[in-house]
Protein 1
Amino acid sequence: MLLIAAKGLIGKPHITPSGEVSILLSALPEVLSPCLRALPTKLQDAETRIRNRPVDLLVNQESSQLLRTRSSMIQYMREFFLKDDQVEVQTPILAEMAGGAVARPFVTTATEFPTRKITLRIAPELWLKRMVIGGFDRVFEIGPAFRNEGIDLIHNPEFTTCEFYRAYTNLDDLIQLTEDLILGLAKHLKTRCIQRLSSLSIPDLNLDVPFQRLDFISELEKGLKCPLPNLTDPRARDQMIQLFTDHALLLPPNPSLPQLLDKLCASFLEPRCIEPTFIVQHPECMSPLSKSFEHPHIKGQRVAARAELFVKGQEIANMYEEENSPFEQRRKFEEQLQYRTEAPDDDIETDESYLDALTWGLPPVGGWGCGIERLCMMLTGTSRISGVLSFGTLKNVVAKSPSTL
C-alpha cells in the first residue's frame, strides 16, 4: 500500500465522489508546529508591515521575494568578482579609528580596553588597501558598515557595503567594470524574476552603454552661469559662501568647502542624472583618498581621478584611482583637518597607522564601492530602504513592541 506523508498527514491516495484528488487519512494529523493566531488576509500599512516583519513575509509575497532578490544579487556580485580573480577577505569592524569616509562613527568601549575608544567601521577601505600593500592585488569585501547619522527613505545607520581594490586599474577600467556589472545584474535579475519570482516586477532601466558622463566643475559652472573660484586658494571657502549668497542658495550650517561643493552638486548635477550617469573629476578637496591632477581644461583647478555613478538622482557607486604617495596622502589628510576646523561637527582624524603602511609601497590601484541596499532599490524599483532590509531600518529594529494587527 502506498502511504503519503504531507505536512503531518499520513494516508493513501483517494478520489472523492466529485473527482477531486485527496488523501484518505490512516492516522490523525500530527501538529508539527503550533500557530496560535490567524494570519490576516491583508497587511498593507507600511509601518505595520515592517514592525511585524515575520507576518509581512508570510502574507505579502512581494516582501519575501524582494529579500530573495537581494540575496541573488549579492551572489551574482560575488561570482562576478571571483571570476575577475579577486580574493574575498574579511576586515575589522571594530577598531580604534574609523576611516575611509567622512562620517560620524558609532563609539563604544571594549572590556579588554575600558579606557580606550573603540569605533565601528564606517567603511572597509583603508583595511582593504593594506591588503593590497600586503600582496593581494585584487581583493573585495561584502559586509556591514555603520554611520551614526540620520534615517530616511534611502539611508540607514547600519547598511551593507561592497568594495573592491584592483591593482594596476585606472578610472576608465573602473567605469567599464561598473557598466559590465550593472548590465549583468539587471539581466540576471530579470531572468530570475521570470523564472522564480513572479510577484516581483523589475523595472525597465535604460542601460545603454557607455553611460553618460558629466564633468563636475565644467557642468557646475554651466548651471551657475559663472566660474567657480580657484578651489586651492585659502580664500576659496569665503568666496564660495559669497557665491551662495549671490545666487540666493541656502547655506548648510557652518559649512566646510567640501560641504559647499557637495551642496551645489546635489542642487545642479544630481537631478540631471536620471539615466545612468557618471559625475567625474570632482574637486580635489572632496576626495582626500584619491589621486589628483590639474583639470585638463580649467587652469588652476585641481581635481580627483574619481567618478560617481548616479541613477534617478541617487548615488549608486563611487570609484577612484587611489592615492598611493604617503607624502601626498599626509598633505590631504592635513587639509581634511583644516576643513574639520571650519565644520567642527565632522569627526576626522589622521590615520598614522595607514600612512605608515603606505611607506611599504601601495601599487597603482583602482578602488570601487557601493551600498548593497541602494543598488538593490535601483534594480527592483523599491522606494524605501526598509523594504530591502530584513527587519527594516534602525527605527524599526529598536521599536519597543510590534504594531497591533
Protein 2
Amino acid sequence: MSIRSLQSISAGSELTISYTDITAPSYRRQVDLRSMYYFNCACEYCTAGLTCGLPDVPTTSKEGPSSAKILEIEAEGERLQASVGNATSTEKIRLLDQAMRLFVSNKDIFPIWRHPWPLIRDELRLLHWSLDNWSIATVHALKEYFFIEPVLYPVPWHPIRIQRLFLLLKLIYELQYQVFASDDNEVEGDLKGYYINWLSVNKGLEQEIQTAIPKAFGTDSSFAEEYKRLPKSEPPEHYGLRMDWPGERAKLRKVVEEIAD
C-alpha cells in the first residue's frame, strides 16, 4: 500500500481520513458516522460546518431563501433518491428525473454541486450508460467534468477526478464510434446538431489523464497500467483534422452549459 499527498504537509500537522462521503454536508456525515462507527467527528471541516471547504447551508439574506427551504429541497431529493429501490431501470430514471427537475427549478438557491444533486446525476449517468443511451450519459458526465468535480475536488489531479475522467473518456469513445457508424456523421440525442471534433476531445482528455497520473497515482500504479491497456484513438491529424484541445474544450463547455437537465 502507498499513500500520496495532494498538497504539501508541514511537520507536526494532524492527518485525518474520511470514513464517509466527503461531499455530503457535515450534519449528514455526523449521522452516518454515529450510526456506522459510533463516534462524532471533530475535524476542522465538521466543526466549522463545511463541505469541500464551503458552508453546508449558504448564507442567506433577509430577502433571500431561508436555510429551511434549502434543507427542504435537499430532503426531498434524498427521499426521491431512496425511493428507487428495486424498481425497473425505466422507473428509476423517472424518479431520478423528478429529483433533477426539483433541483433545476431551485438552481438559483441550490447549486449544481450541492448534495444530493451530484449523486442523483451520477446514478442517472450509470443507468443511461447501462441502456446504451450514450449521448445522455455523456452529457451528464460532461456536466460533472466541467461544473461539479472542480468544486468538490479542487485539486486538478485528485484521484477521484482522474478516475471519473477515465470513465468519461470511455463514453467519448462510444460516441466517436456512433459518429463513424452513422450515415450523417452525427451523434444522436442531446448532442445532435452540435459539431464537436470528438477526435480532438479524445486526445485532449487522454493528455489530461497522462499528465495527472504521476501525481494522482504514480507511474507504476495499477491505474497507470489499466490506462496503458486502453486502446487509444488516432490523433485528429491522421484524418486531416486540426488538433485544438483548448478551443474544443471551451466550445464543448459552452454546448454542455446550453443543454438543459
Protein 3
Amino acid sequence: MSDADLEEIRKARLAQLQQQGGAASNDKDDQRLLGSKKAAEARNSILAQILLPEAADRLGRIRLVKESRATDVENRLIMLARSGQLRSKVTEEQLKELLGAMAENNEKEAPGKIVVNRRKGGWDDDDDLEGL
C-alpha cells in the first residue's frame, strides 16, 4: 500500500465518522426539540384551561411587548392552578390584578432608582488649562 492509498482510506473513514457523529447529534437535537415542543404544548393546554379568551388575548399582547414578563405571569398562573387556588377561569380583570401585584413585587425587590456616585477631588477641568 502506498501513502496515497492510506490517505484515501483515512479520508473515507473520517467522512464516515463525521456522518455518524452528525447523525447522533441530530438525534439528540431532535429529542430535545421534541421535548421542548411537548412542554410548550402542555403549558398551552393548561393555560387554555385556566384562562378566558379575553385574558389569553391580553397575555398574548403582553408576550409581544415583553416575553419574560409574559412567561413569569404564565408560571404564576400555572403554579396557582396546580396548587388549587384558582376556583374558576381567570378573567381579564383578574389578570390585570395579578400583573399589578407582580409589578409591585418587582418594584420592592429592585427599586427603579439610579444612584450616581461621583468622585471627589483630584478631577478638576481647570487642571488641563494650566499648561497653556
